[in-house]
Design brief:
single chain; alpha/beta; Nucleotidyltransferase, domain 5; Hypothetical protein af1432; six-stranded mixed β-sheet; 23 helices; 17% strand
Length: 538
């Protein structure tokens, strides 16, 4: 007994303790899988993940037929919980909070299972009601989405149940739980070789069930957030289908309703083995993903949602916040994103005055000529973030800092930013200097044509804005733009008593991509009306 105790203390001692807050382990014993997260949680609700562990004992398998948990599944689950408890203690978690959801809740032998877990692992597992599950899912969504001034529907699809939370301006108005989990519905309706008729019966069952509690008139057009394995796999498949890089993060991915229906058709026409090979889909979920997406599609249809936003966080994160007694405050749209991007920039020790000056000038350029270049309204936020982060690569080194910026932004944890947006922000930051975006660049080439065009337009604007602060002195007060037949005329207005000769030189050197896209010269005009001429400058 002595050796294991010394080992636990030694390992815990080597792990940095949180400067503030507590280290907590949260374990979610679900119908399909058991997941643990060990994290440091601060009083403000910030979560720093230390480690994660997952097992898939499928406690809910056969439950609808037999009414109780199977012996093999229970043994698998208890072994997994033993490993998780050991890891949490070795990592120095001061609290281990475990909860069980639909499968255990509905099983006739639930007390036998919970007693065995306590006897063999020392864990006291709390049995959640459907409403408890819904509240934890919503607490997590509230911490990771801007819900202060909008109506939202949060749906969490587990292996055994569906939870719906309807909120207005960050306040819960209604909680509902249904026996529409992906594993349960697969067993009840689909089996090993699902047919179209069976899928239609499943969807009709779900449709009739949610119709009574989800009034369309109140929730039509609400923000729809999807939590759970069905949605993280949906997000990964969507990213893969678009040729976007996927590194396990799907939080914030927005999947259109028509894409969900398209995936349903494709999955129905595929064998289980073929499904297991679909990019982005976890092979272990290949047999139950069809039922999960069918439930999602019916909720989307009911509230006429155009898209669903994937949450990378769920019951475990809600449990962390609950255990730490943190109640997230509703945030206005864009607040979480702006705060997260700025915090990341500060972690990289960015040069704040230069970054903010480049951002301000880039947005002036965008507002003046963005539409003429073909930019979309959503591109403005991408440009703003890329401008603020364009030089974070200096955190690694000066040489190739633009490429360092790309890699840092690609792997940053940015709340409120979808994976697609983050990828674009990283590329635009990368192309603020050096070579222009080209098809021979591997990461750029694998993007779809529309995305490449958006990146080129925003990079052209950012390059010019960066050149206009060549001296990092904030010498330019503002710029005026005119779109002429032969040129884009940029008049530079300096700060009082400031010279902008260096800034005009820098802008001229970085205006080439913008000139190509605008199909006309970029003409720089000084404060006295003089047109900048590079000839003779060294």
């Amino acid at each position: 007994m002595t050796a294991p105790r010394v080992r636990v203390l030694d390992i815990a001692a080597r792990i940095p303790r949180p400067a503030e807050g507590v280290r907590i382990a949260a374990i979610d014993v679900g119908s399909n899988s058991i997941r643990q997260i060990v994290a440091d949680v601060t009083p403000t609700g910030s979560i720093r993940i230390i480690d994660e562990m997952k097992a898939a004992p499928r406690l809910g398998a056969g439950l609808s037929r037999h009414g109780k948990l199977g012996a093999a599944s229970m043994r698998h689950a208890i072994d997994a919980l033993q490993r998780m408890a050991t890891l949490a203690r070795q990592l120095g978690a001061t609290r281990i909070h475990a909860v069980a959801t639909s499968a255990v809740r509905d099983a006739a032998n639930r007390r036998d299972f919970l007693d065995l877990v306590r006897e063999e692992t020392g864990l006291r597992v709390r049995l959640l009601t459907g409403e408890d599950e819904a509240r934890l899912s919503f607490r997590s969504a509230l911490a990771h989405f801007d819900l202060a001034v909008r109506r939202a529907v949060v749906m969490d699809i587990g292996g055994g149940s569906l939870e719906l939370v309807m909120s207005a301006d960050g306040v819960v108005e209604r909680l509902e739980s249904f026996p529409y989990g992906a594993l349960r519905l697969t067993e009840e309706f689909l089996g090993e070789r699902p047919k179209l008729k069976q899928l239609k019966q499943l969807r009709a069952e779900v449709r009739d069930g949610i119709r009574r509690v989800l009034p369309v008139r109140d929730w039509r057009g609400a923000l729809l957030i999807g939590s759970g394995g069905t949605f993280t796999n949906l997000g990964a498949m969507h990213l893969a289908a678009r040729g976007l890089p996927y590194d396990g993060r799907v939080h914030g991915t927005q999947v259109p309703r028509e894409e969900v229906e398209h995936l349903l058709d494709m999955l129905l026409a595929s064998s289980r083995q073929e499904r297991a090979g679909i990019p982005g889909l976890n092979p272990a979920r290949a047999d139950i993903i069809l039922a999960g997406l069918a439930v999602a599609a019916e909720v989307m249809a009911r509230i006429e949602a155009r898209e669903v936003s994937v949450s990378g966080y769920g019951i475990r994160e809600g449990l962390l916040l609950e255990t730490a007694r943190v109640t997230p405050a509703p945030a206005d749209p864009g607040v979480a994103r702006e705060r997260s991007v700025r915090q990341f920039a500060e972690q990289c020790h960015f040069e704040r005055p230069h970054a903010e000056q480049v951002q301000r000038l880039a947005l002036q350029l965008f507002d003046a000529i963005g539409r003429r270049l073909g930019c979309e309204p959503a591109d403005r936020a991408i440009l703003a973030d890329a401008a603020l982060l364009h030089d974070v690569g200096y955190h690694i080194g000066h040489a190739r800092h633009h490429k360092h910026s790309y890699h840092l932004v690609t792997h940053a944890e940015l709340l409120g930013v979808s994976p697609e947006e983050q990828m674009m922000i990283a590329h635009v930051a990368r192309y603020h200097r050096g070579a222009e975006p080209r098809r021979r660049h591997v990461d750029f080439a694998r993007l779809d044509r529309d995305t490449r065009r958006r990146i080129r337009r925003l990079s052209a604007i950012l390059r010019l804005a960066d050149g206009l602060d060549r001296g990092h002195a904030g010498a330019v007060k503002r710029i005026k733009l005119r779109w002429l037949d032969r040129a884009v005329r940029v008049t530079v207005v300096p700060q009082p008593r400031a010279s902008v000769r260096l800034e005009m030189w820098g802008a001229d050197r970085k205006a080439g991509l913008l000139a190509k896209l605008a199909k006309r010269d970029v003409e720089l005009v000084g404060p006295q009306g003089e047109v900048f001429e590079p000839a003779g400058d060294s």
